[in-house]
Amino acid sequence: MMENCLFCKIIAGEISSEKVYEDDTIFAFLDINPASKGHTLVAPKKHFSRFTDMDAENVASLFEAARKITAALENALLAEGSNIGINDGEVAGQEIPHVHVHVIPRRKGDGGRGIKSIVWTEPDTNNLKEIAEKLRRAL
Ligand code: 5GP
Ligand code: ZN
């Protein structure tokens, strides 16, 4: 548990939340300021500030829990689809520095858009080969 971390406190039960799922490694609860009905946050119990800090096992359990919760949300709260994602880093809109996956149920006619509506910087598309090469070298 990380001191002064809001989500660590929620996971420990020191701050109340509307819990929807819990297992050995995962805690999921409703977002207090939802983007749509049922918006759920899925977090590892262990404190990781950034997605890139996580180990493979915790990533696997985080995304398996996100998958299960997405299916349950779509069934129980009548959604036709969902946006599933992480704001990783302050520049990407992360407000709480404890990794969490947003599961945002989507319904026909809700007026929302897809993941590229988060950011669209019109980058140059003539150098995709170079970019891919740089990335391959970094992996
Ligand atoms: P982030 O911007 O870090 O990806 O998302 C943080 C999310 O946590 C926001 O969607 C915000 O509404 C939610 N949130 C912030 N404080 C609380 C809280 O005290 N309880 C709950 N349930 N959600 C919170
Ligand atoms: Zn934490």
Summary tags:
single chain, about 140 residues, alpha+beta, HIT family, subunit A, five-stranded antiparallel beta sheet, 3 helices, about 25% helix, binds guanosine-5'-monophosphate, binds zinc ion
Explained architecture:
By secondary structure, the chain is of the alpha+beta class. The chain has a single domain (6-138), classed as HIT-like (HIT family, subunit A, 2-Layer Sandwich). It contains 3 helices and 5 strands. The protein has a 5-stranded antiparallel beta sheet, covered by helices on one side. Strand 1 and strand 2 form a beta hairpin. The longest helix has 21 residues, at 56-76. The chain is globular, with a radius of gyration of 17 Å. The mean pLDDT is 97. Bound molecules: guanosine-5'-monophosphate (5GP) and zinc ion (ZN). Zinc ion (ZN) binds next to helix 1. Zinc ion binds next to helix 1.
Mean pLDDT over all positions: 97
CATH class: Alpha Beta
**CATH structural fold name:** HIT family, subunit A
Q: Total strand count, please? A: 5
Give the H and E element order.
Answer: HEEEHEEH
- Global outline: globular
Radius of gyration: 17 Å
- What is the CA–CA distance across the termini? 31 Å
Number of structural domains: 1
Please state the second-level CATH architecture.
2-Layer Sandwich
Bound molecules: guanosine-5'-monophosphate, zinc ion
CATH homologous superfamily label: HIT-like
Would you identify the regions where 5 or more consecutive residues have pLDDT less than 50?
A: none
Task: Determine the number of helices (DSSP H or I, runs of at least 4 residues).
Answer: 3
Structural class category: alpha+beta
